[in-house]
Design goal:
Blueprint: E1 2-5, H1 11-21, H2 28-37, E2 43-46, E3 52-60, E4 70-78, H3 87-103, E5 107-113, H4 117-126, E6 130-135, E7 145-151, H5 156-180
Parallel strand pairs: 4-5
Antiparallel strand pairs: 1-2, 2-3, 3-4, 5-7, 6-7
Helix pairs in contact: 1-2
Length: 181
Amino acid sequence: MNVRNARPEDLINMQHCNLLCLPENYQMKYYLYHGLSWPQLSYLAEDEGGKIVGYVLAKMEEDPDDQVPHGHITSLAVKRTYRRLGIARKLMDQASRAMVECFDAQYVSLHVRVSNRAALNLYQTTLGFEITDREPKYYADGERALADKAQDGGGEASKEEGGKRAKSKKQTQQSDAYNEE
């Protein structure tokens, strides 16, 4: 498996991967906007034959409300047969690292469907993202989104903190379950 920076000629195949994997789909001009404005931030994973099996489409927030430079994950997808191999984590690590190194991002933000348990687990438990807001009817089908954020670009420190919080939460749940018996 090879993870590399996306190039303009990859955008059509990234869009195809998006169409296969996600209910939120973007027009090609949106991929071009990301690829031309922030070419350092989007990455893809390809199999041994060079076929794209996953990607992350990322950008910097242009006029952040909090005036703090930060990146945003627009879209992350991995084809179903390649999931649970650590590809999404590698893609997120590369994009987050590039945001910090190239643009001095102080944190990374993203939105995730409340029903997407696998993504919530990846972002919150594995990568250390925290919920910062709930946005009703965020998606075209009316589903609400959780707005998440990770300090230091979701780096190693954020991941360690995420793991500690998850362990603490699990211990609390086990304790609560014990107390209910």
